[in-house]
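Continuing the series of single-chain predictions for the mutant panel. This is the parent chain; the variants come on the following pages.
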Amino acid sequence: MEVSLCDEFDMAIKINRNLTAKKLLPKVEQFFHLSGQKILSIEKEWRASKGTPVFTEKGKYTTRGWTEWTQGFQFGSAILQFDATGDQKYLDIGYKGTLKHMASHVSHVGVHDHGFNNISTYGNLRRIMREGKIPFNSREIDFYELALKVSGAVQAARWTSIPAGGFIYSFNGPHSLFVDTIRSLRVLAVSHQLGHSLMGEKDKKISLLERLVQHAKATADHCIYYGKGRDHYDICGRTAHESIFNLNDGSYRCPNSQQGYSPFSTWTRGLAWAICGFAEELEFFMALKDKELKPFGGRKKLNNMMLKAARATADYYIENSCVDGVPVWDTGAANIHYLGDYLSKRSNPYNNYEPVDSSSATIAAQGLIRLGNYLINSGKKASGSKYRQAGLTVAETLLDEPYLSTSSKHQGLVLHSIYHRPNGWDYVPRGKKIPCGESSMWGDYHARELALMLLREARGESYMTFFDY
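Parent structure:
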């Protein structure tokens, strides 16, 4: 009998064991019909001079300066829409937007977001060309691959060394490891597959795969909890948004949080990034040869490290989400006690105390499905089925109201997303006490990735990955 990494837990998500991609197909098709309307509305009204669209206010996408980490999702969404529908106008939006606006993101030395921006654009364009969905053009493919090579190296250069290896540091500075960045590792993976390396002082050749492995290990060791008594709030599967290091000796000091309620509670979007990021890297390692992984401890050791982190976070997400699979924005938020036994009910985005975060759910659903598929393909059918069906259950919720945005007047696709609750950046509608009813560029993009995975599976198309098998 297969058991969870963590102690036995009470399952909060009411997992539908009978769901399949084909059964969800009518909802997925409706989703992409609505998705196309939203993309065209944004394209018509968005002005580049105002900055990158980040989230909606009163149904219209607006900007919020912090870092320009969502622009790749804007144009990547159009490319995914083309993949789903074959409609040329969406490819044109994605291609022209990438060509005109994304070059600065390739060489951006100030952020940890390369995997978000550049895989979503250059990576998706390369993928659909290699799949034959658009005509092959050698000069275009060289253009995409050069962008991805450079992006992976620039991301890997943002590096802090610690005794056990190192990590890609966040925009907060060299002391700061964000859990988010586990999903940005995808750009290092692609750059490595393309045969690229980071060149350092005295022409030192630095392996992008080595940096990927070391960052994944640092994240697993310091951003993920395993119930081993690391601090008083060490509950298996919890995540810390940020981990702080002493730069004098590279030692770990403490957890922190930028967008969560506290360092000792779990910001659920960070939790979702961990589930999805580790699951994707497990899939990526399947495409590598044993000799590539041997210098870093070998396949078994690395798989065990990432699988431990993926399963712990997935179990915690399942345990700490409402029965329909949508979590509150932070599992320790200040007013959460007013919600009572909220985990035994469907999520209520219109409550008066703490917002839910649908964007966490869009990311986690994909991660759960990928983790489930990985385990099933590894011969662990029982546990794999649990995660896969949990992911499908979350997907079903997101593909329907009150989360699916059916109004043509609203530019968002998935409602009830939260960006930065502590800073008060999210819009609170008149008559409400908490943010609700709005969307985010990352939530909408990841919902499209999720829906496209399901659509391709239902159609019998190839399994979608960010890398080459």
